[in-house]
Amino acid sequence: MTTDNDPVLAAWLIERFGAEGEASGLIGEDLVVGYAEGRLSDEERDAAEQLLARDPAARQMLGLVPHETMQEEPAARRSWFAYVAAAAAVLLAIGAFFWTQGDDLPSDREERLVALVQRLPISDQTRAAMSARMTSTRPLDLPAVERGGVHVLAPRGAVLTSSPMLRWRSVTGAADYTVRIARPDDSSLFTATISDLSLALPAELEDGLYIFEVTAKTAFGEAGGSTLFRVVGPAIRAEHAGVVAAIRETASGTERELLTAWYALTKERYGVATAALERAQQRDATDPHVVRLGTLLEPLLP
User: Fold this and answer.
1) Is 38 a residue whose pLDDT tops 70?
2) pLDDT above 60 (res 8)
3) Alpha-carbon distance 276 to 268, whole Å?
4) How far is CA 204 from CA 46, 238, 244, in A?
5) Cα pseudo-dihedral 269, 271, 272, 274, rounded to 10
6) What is the rounded distance in angstroms from the CA atom of residue 207 to the CA atom of residue 200?
7) What average pLDDT is seen over the chain?
8) Domains parsed from the chain with CATH numbers
9) Tens of pLDDT along 164-180?
10) From CA 22, how far away is CA 92, in angstroms rounded?
């Protein structure tokens, strides 16, 4: 199986299974044959299905397994698959080599970041949006908070988890806060009253659009705030994971976190962007790009 034409697959496999030599065993005997006979663990089965979905060569390899071979003892199957596993290991190593090598990156910081964006397995439209975000000071397109209202922090935009963390800013004099998750038709799914400024949603949400409301109770009455967010499906989550894996293979340190944040912003995945910002600030809070990103994301920070 070659990964020369699928850098996301190469990056994902290397990150998931380690070095090329270790990956080859899973890609050859253990992963393909194990999947064919249904003896994989849940994690290995998920890995096999992702590999088969991405790589036509993997599906072809699976189709080459004779029906009789699947009924034989493991030793017979291993003998039949030995040359296939060896070939897969060589091809994977070649694909991973070309993906991680490439041309030398420019020494200039700005030029290097632009070059790293060009290497990512994303659409031209997303690439252009990422490049624009690198230097833009245009604020995020977020709903304004009403005067005296509650400033809702998260979740906002596109959410990758079905149980997001709920966060908001404090309101002066508030004794407690009532949070509510509702469908677009305003039918309630979850309600709770707490004194903290965050809450881990105890229920799992299906893919789709939701309303998040917070109401603060003070001596002067009630103040409220709300926002919309959407829980994305498995296809988008897989796409996101692939791009993030590619970023980890092409960049390191602060640059890796910046690329992750810029990519997330182009998809309105604000939770991912703020998490990447926090990691970047821990590495170098004085970096001009980090400072600019922090200013941009200030409305989403505690």
Assistant:
1) no
2) no
3) 14
4) 21, 19, 24
5) 120
6) 18
7) 77
8) 7-100 (no CATH), 109-136+234-300 (no CATH), 152-231 (2.60.40.1220)
9) 999 999 999 998 999 99
10) 11
